[in-house]
Amino acid sequence: MDDDFEFFLAQMGPAIERRRVSEASMARFRGKLPVQLLAYWEQHGWCGYADGLFWTVDPQEYEPVLEAWIGDTPFMEKDAYHVIARSAFGKLYFWGEHTGDTLKVMAPGAYGISRESIFQDDRLEFALRLFFSNRDREENDFNDMFSGARKKLGQLKHDEMYGFVPALALGGPATLTHLKKVKAVEHLVLLAQLAPLQIMNPAT
After folding, report:
1. Of 3, 100, 133, 187, which cross-links 127 as Cys (Cβ 3.0–4.6 Å)?
2. How would you write the chain as a 3-class SS string?
3. For the sheet containing 81-87, what is the strand order?
4. What is the pLDDT of residue 13?
5. So what's the pLDDT on residue 121?
6. What pTM does this model have?
7. Which residues contact residue 105 at a Cβ distance below 8 angstroms, ignoring those fewer than 6 apart?
8. Alpha-carbon span 62 to 51, nearest angstrom
9. pLDDT < 70: residue spans in the chain
């Protein structure tokens, strides 16, 4: 195990709800996603960390989510993207085959953050290691609600997330009492239909 992933595990804790990644899935993404990511999949599977606050996911399973959020946007003209991870509240991490970690979408608020690629093509293996070492609990929580949501609603399964009902885009309040366990893929696709995606471009 490399130092970056060891640091990630130290910050985010042991895996839960681990699912084995088949050789067919490995083959499907070989040459599209970093070798290092496939090595993590092989060793750890697709699973949750930090008690289910952060999840690595099957990009094929999340293709409807990708299509719903950026399928008709200029992003798909710039690179081929895959959803490789998400948070318990629907923060989506997109990985570009040539540009790496350059797009994140916070689905409940229908906003995204896009930045220029720092590492491209031949440096994407290094970028992938940085992606994991830079993850922390705070960025994946939503208004410090995770602990309360887990206590109230229980631990998430691999195909679940905490969603606001009614959705924030429909005027629902961002409070713990309005959180429910929902099916992740279905809910994320629904959220994409409720409000247009707003993209921010940070200066750094």
Report:
1. 100
2. CCHHHHHHHHHHCCCEEEECCCHHHHHHHECCECHHHHHHHHHHCEEEEHHHCEEECCCCCCHHHHHHHHCCCCHHHHCCEEEEEEECCCEEEEEECCCEEEEEEEHHHCEEEECCCCCCHHHHHHHHHHHHHCCCHHHHCCCCCHHHHHHHHCCCCCCEEEEECCCHHHCCCCCHHHEEEEEHHHHHHHHHHHCCCEEECCCC
3. 16-19, 46-49, 54-56, 81-87, 91-96, 100-106, 111-114, 198-200
4. 87
5. 78
6. 0.95
7. 69, 70, 91, 92, 94, 111, 112, 197
8. 21
9. 1, 202-204
For residues 21 and 136, give the distance between their C-alpha atoms in angstroms, rounded to a whole number. 24
Q: For residue range 132-155, list pLDDT tens digits in order.
A: 999 999 999 999 999 999 999 999
Domains in the chain (CATH in brackets) are: 3-142+196-200 (3.40.1580)
Q: For residue 64, how many C-alpha atoms fall within 13 Å in the half-sphere facing its CB? A: 10
pLDDT of 202 reads 64
Parallel, antiparallel or unpaired: strands 198-200 and 111-114: parallel
pLDDT value at residue 204: 40
Task: Specify the pLDDT at position 203.
Answer: 47
Q: What does each C-alpha distance from 129 to 38, 115, 126 come to in angstroms?
A: 12, 18, 5
Token digits for 121?
């093509």
